[in-house]
Amino acid sequence: MIKIGIINGPNLNMLGKREQKIYGNITLEEINHKLKSFAEKVGIELTIKQSNFEGEIIEFIQQFSSQVEGLIINPAAYTHYSYAIADALRDCPIPIVEVHLSNIFSREDFRGKSVTAPACTGQIAGFGYHSYILAIHALQDLLKKGEKQNG
């Protein structure tokens, strides 16, 4: 069974309450339930973490680097300025997909720049929680082919 870790960054614990015009009314708990249900159907074991703290996200990356075969990360606002998270991702020897619920390129100008994406294998944005589903598919395919290189 393939093991994949998911890390959700700051303020994602507030989904369903914050900026519903952008993120909708689905909560992170509901997204996690949908993801685990999907993963179970396709034979993938998920471990999901969320933190509002940069250092804790870095610790999750470091832990996952030896515990799972692939990583999905939604760095949220840290996407745009956390070189520390980018460095931790660069040091992670497994395939990584950066995801975003919204299309970050259609929002404020500063959101169109990701300092973390270059350290990842790829990026998926703009499909709501389906961004995570697409990332699971991508990692599953990469891992079956034995590809483990990041950006």
Q: What characteristic shape results from the CA principal axes?
A: globular
Distance between the termini: 25 Å
> Which secondary-structure class do the elements indicate?
alpha/beta
Strand content: 15-25%
CATH class: Alpha Beta
The CATH topology = Rossmann fold
Helix-strand pattern: EHHEHEHEEH
Low-confidence regions: none
Helix content: 25-40%
Instruction: Estimate the mean pLDDT confidence.
Output: 90
Order of strands, main sheet, comes to 2-1-3-4-5
Number of helices: 5
CATH architecture: 3-Layer(aba) Sandwich
- Quaternary assembly: single chain
| Rg over alpha carbons | 14 Å
Total domain units = 1
Largest sheet: 5 strands, parallel
CATH superfamily: Dehydroquinase, class II
Short account of what is shown:
With 151 residues, the protein is of the alpha/beta class. It has five helices and five strands, in the order βααβαβαββα. Helix 3 (54-67) packs parallel to helix 4 (83-90).
